[in-house]
Amino acid sequence: MRRLIALLTVALLALTGACSSDAKGSSGKPSVVASTSVWAAVARQVAGGHADVSAILDSPQQDPHDYEANAQDKLAFSRATVTVVNGGGYDDWATKLASSSSTVVNAVEVSGLPGAGEDGFNEHVWYSPTAAVQVATRVADGLAKADAANAAAYRENLITFTSKITALEARAQQIAAKDTGAGIVSTEPVGAHLFAWVGVKDVTPEAYVTGSESDAGPSVSAVNQTESLMTSGRVRALAVNPQTSDPVSDRLVASAKAAKVPTFDVYEILPDATMSYTDFLAAALTSLSKALSQ
Ligand SMILES: [Zn+2]
């Protein structure tokens, strides 16, 4: 919590130094374009109604990892006042397109998380509240620079956003106090930063994790090894990415069910495009703690 307050101070200092350079879209408002709906949701909470915010990918059927950008996406990025990309190899198509924009917020780069951007770093940083506050701060800064008339509103929205995150921090600590070290398994390593936040241990075998990120998928022995964990008594829940279900993850879900191991969902794209980021994070905490208490 102390860390978040420190972040907020940095945010305010950044905004005080903002100046006007008026880069506005056709609606007369500045605009934010994000690679995915989760980052757009962060930006939307900062923008309030003062900036247009859109995401390139907002359908759960789209996979940000291997999306290929089109001419329309390129145009959207080039017109944006602020662009938000995840970075860390997650959405290289967006990182490439965003390089032409004046203010680029790269979530992995600004996250401040240990090892960010290095080999083996888990790039799904939207589950890190620290990364989200850093992104929100940079977005507020970029918008205030382009739209000085609304700088105070962006600053206020950022304070509201950060205090909502701080409230969630308290809930995360409650889960941590109750369930520290609880073992869970993931069909894909999407929720790693969420688990680190609440002190839950992902015990998915390394061979499975590496395999699940390769084109070939995990080997039969890695899947068998993961499946046998379900009946080991060491696993309290299975984290599932419902947006990329395949035969392997379906099999793990079935074996979790058979062993009465509860499942809960983690996402790459907002399950509901109209959801706020803080509601998304709150829902993640709720479903994780529900699964752990079953
Ligand atoms: Zn992923």
Structural class: alpha/beta
Question: Numbering strands along the chain, what is their spatial order in the largest sheet?
Answer: 2-1-3-4
> Cofactors and ligands present?
zinc ion
Helix content: 40-55%
* Total beta strands: 8
Can you walk me through this structure?
The chain is α/β, with parallel strands linked by helices. The chain folds into two domains: 2-171, 3-Layer(aba) Sandwich (Rossmann fold), CATH 3.40.50.1980; 173-292, Rossmann fold (3-Layer(aba) Sandwich), CATH 3.40.50.1980. The chain has helices at residues 2-16, 37-47, 71-79, 92-98, 107-110, 129-146, 151-179, 192-198, 206-212, 220-230, 247-258, 277-292, and strands at 31-36, 52-57, 82-85, 103-106, 183-186, 201-202, 237-240, 263-265. The strands form two sheets. It has a four-stranded parallel β-sheet, with helices on both faces. β3 (82-85), α4 and β4 (103-106) form a beta-alpha-beta unit. Bound molecules: zinc ion. The site of zinc ion has 5 residues, from loops.
